[in-house]
Design goal:
5 strands; alpha/beta; five-stranded parallel sheet
Length: 329
Amino acid sequence: MSNARSIGPVLLLMTVILVIYKSIQIGSNFDRERLESSFHPHYRRYPYNNHLPTATSGYVVIFFALPKCGSRTLLMVVRKSEDHRSGLLTVDSNLTLLPGEMMADEGYAVTFLTEHLSYIQEPGFVYTHSRFVDIGSSSAKPLRYISVLRDPLDRLVSLYYYRRNRDGTGMTEKERIWRKGLSGIITNETFDECIRRDRSECTSDYAYMSTISHFCGYDPRCNSNATWAIERAKYNVVNYFDVVGLMEDYASFVTVIEMTLPLAFRGARVIYEDFQSKPSGGVARMKTQRKVPPSNEIRRVVAEKLHHDYEFYNFVKERFEEQKRTLGI
C-alpha cells in the first residue's frame, strides 16, 4: 500500500512535466509557422513557385553567384555563346569586388547595383558576388534572377583551399587585389587544423551561415538571427528567383536555365557538354588545387554546425527537383 501511495505523486509529477513540455513544443512550432507565414503563406508546402511571368521579351539576367559553387563555369559558357560572340547578348562580370558600404546599407546596395545596370543593354547577363537584393522596382530594365548552390561543407572546404592554392586559371587583376587583402591573414594549415584551433575563418557564425546570408540579403538580421534569416532566404528564392540550381547536378541546372531564359542561355547545354568533354581544360581548370579532404570526425562536427545551411540547401534541392519535373527533365 505504501508503495502505491509513493508512486502516485511521481506519476502526477511526470504527467505535469509532459504537459508543460508539449505546450512549449506547440508554442515553438506556432511561432515558427507564424514567422514563415509572414513571408509567404504557401512557400513551405509548394517550394517551386512558378508565379513569375514568362520571360519572352528582352531582359537582363542577374546571376547572384555564391563563391565556389561553379559559378565561373556558367560565366564561361555564356561568353562562348554565339549570341554573345555576335553582339546579341551583353555579358558583364564587373561586380565581383564590391564596395564595403554595401554590407551595412541595403539602400546603398540597391543604388549601386541599379546604377551599374543602367549601362547594360538587353538582353544581358550580369555576374555578381553581391548578396541578393531585389532591385526590380528601382531598375527600368526587366530583371530575372538565378543562382546555384553547393553542399555547404564541400563549399566551405573548397573556399578555404582556394584562398591558399587557387586553381588552374590565370589570375585577373581583381583577384590580385583580393589576394593582396588576404596577405598576412590566412595561415598555412589544413582545414582540420583550422577547425581544431578554432580559427574564425572556419568556425565563425559567418562561416556557418554564409549560404543563408547570401540569399537573405543585407538586412542586419541576416547575420544575427538564424531563424529569421533562413525563412527570409527561402522567401527570396521562391518569390524572386527563376532558377536556383545545384552544383552537384550542374548539367540539369544549365538545361533548366536554357529552357527558362532562352534569350540569355540559347545553346548553353551544348557548350557546357563540350567543356565537360575536355578533361585537361575547360571546367577542369577551375577546380581548387591541393585540397586536403577533411577527416570523418571534422566532417561530422562541421556538418552539425552547418545545420541551418543544410536546411536551406535541402529546401532549394526539393524546389529544383520539382522544377525539373515540371519541365520534363
